[in-house]
Amino acid sequence: MKLVIDPGHGGSDPGAVGSYSKEKDINLLLSLKLKNKLTASGISVICTREDDSEVSLQKRCDIANNYGADYFISMHCNSAKDTGASGTETYCLATGGKAYELAKVLQQAMIEFNNNKDRGVKVANYYVLKYTNMPAVIIETMFLSNQQEEERLNNTQWQDLFTSYLAEAICVYLGFTPVLSNKTPIMGGAEATAKQMDIFLRKFNADAPYLAELYLKVGKLEGVRGDLAFAQSILETGYFRFEGAVSKAQNNFAGLGATGNGVQGAVFGTPEEGITAQIQHLKAYATTNPLNTVQVDPRFNLVQRGSAPYWEDLNGKWAVPGNGYGENVVKIWNEILTVSVENQVEHYAQEAYDEWKAKGIVLEDHDLNTPITWGEYVITQQRIKNLE
């Protein structure tokens, strides 16, 4: 069974705008949470976007059609000039058939959970409904223009419970047994952004390396939640201060091979290699699926494959005795998710500079408004040349 979840809008298209939040952000969060819950239940799920990127309507259809999806669900929030407008509604292309049946199931589940106005299942000729080759529905969860509903849409606890309820309804409809554990899956899509991750880390260590983008990139390649792996590294390295047995020069951000009694553990040539090894080791624990990247984890074959699909299952495995190890990783991750990036003033060259930091072209933090020396310039050029 293959399912595509489509977080509506994204990039320069915010969708509906509430008093303090944007539809594109809520759509993405709900979609990723729903994807992770459905994946844990054995359904193959992809999202048309997993970050704040702009994806055309045709591209969304192409992703679903090329994937050979069995169903397509597009996630949206509603809005109206009347701030008192409220409720939930669902759209499909026509009455009758699988799309209509799924729309009724989703609508019923959302109304039961939200206990709000039932605006019904409606027929519409929207682009993604018309040009996808499988049964497709659009859900309008609630109204961002309604203050009470906007507050619920932005509440983390509501998001988790809502997507669990929705996932259960989908699983029952598709004939799958829902696996709605309170544990946190290792596999799935990231929910935090690189900016949230970097801002959070620098609250505790202003000199920490810029590695968030690499964690998201490598995590996506293997299907591992890169934001949670980043939270694990924060726990393992003490906010990248490296005050334990493992040194900064080892590029070992999760204590791989550091088994105690002064044993320093594995050494990796670059930050990306070290992050890749960590992601691969997590995948070894979480699933029996093969790697999508060249193996660099020296301890990959020492793991009982699939023995720890959840972060909380790593207690006593990744860390010994490891009481509360996975819970502490998840706690840090939840704190990262609370970081607001709306009011962060960023230098015009910050994104390019962060990329240089991630690639090791520059190793220390610099004030972007301060000129560099000739020595610094020569070193950066040499490092760029070595990357070619």
Characterization of the model:
The protein is of the alpha/beta class and 388 residues long. The protein has 13 helices and six strands. It has helices at 23-40, 57-67, 97-114, 127-130, 147-153, 156-174, 194-204, 212-222, 226-237, 271-286, 325-337, 350-359, 374-387; strands at residues 2-7, 44-47, 71-78, 88-92, 118-123, 136-143. Helix 1 (23-40) links the parallel strand 1 and strand 2. Helix 1 (23-40) crosses helix 6, helix 3 (97-114) packs antiparallel against helix 6 (156-174) and helix 8 (212-222) packs across helix 9. The radius of gyration is 22 Å and the shape is globular. The model has no long low-confidence stretch (mean pLDDT 90).
Task: Jot down its keywords.
alpha/beta; 388 residues; Aminopeptidase; six-stranded mixed β-sheet; 3 domains; globular; Lysozyme; 13 helices
* Superfamily (CATH H level) name of the largest domain: Zn-dependent exopeptidases
Largest sheet report: 6 strands, mixed
CATH class call of the largest domain: Alpha Beta
Mean pLDDT: 90
Order of helices and strands: EHEHEEHEHEHHHHHHHHH
State the helix count. 13
- In percent, how much strand structure appears in the residues? 5-15%
